Amino acid sequence: MGTYRESLRVPVSWWIIAAAAVATLFVIVAVPAGEIAGAVVGGLAAVLLLAMFLRYGGARVEVDERQLRAGRAAIDRQHLGTVEALTGEDARRAFGRDCDPKAYLVLRSYLPGAVRVQITDPGDPAPYWVIATRHPDRLAAALSGHSVGRS
């Protein structure tokens, strides 16, 4: 059985955009209201963005010999069926038009791939999970018990 661990951190470009937004807010407020007011507004915006990025990007995907954990959910591996690595248009459709409304999703729009895992537990309302990932082949291999080399 394979193991896998990934943190779904937000990309550096988001941090750069957030820094530019905080600087812009500082200037917009500081020019008419003073530097203290600008620093307060900029500081509050920075703290809010930091908290949001850390929470959103703090989602983890972990596979061990017992469980699959994705975001806030976990399921025993005995309840996992077929596993499919998705990239490109297949990944976009899995989160969009081809998605079952009952499916459990761990979606991160900045990640290029995904893995769809069939759920075989008759008591689980989700027919499958779709999990965003930077490494769909590695995650699929860990779930199916095969090994895939690092690239």
From TrEMBL:
Keywords: Membrane, Transmembrane, Transmembrane helix. The chain crosses the membrane at residues 12-30, 36-56. InterPro entries: DUF3093. This is DUF3093 domain-containing protein.
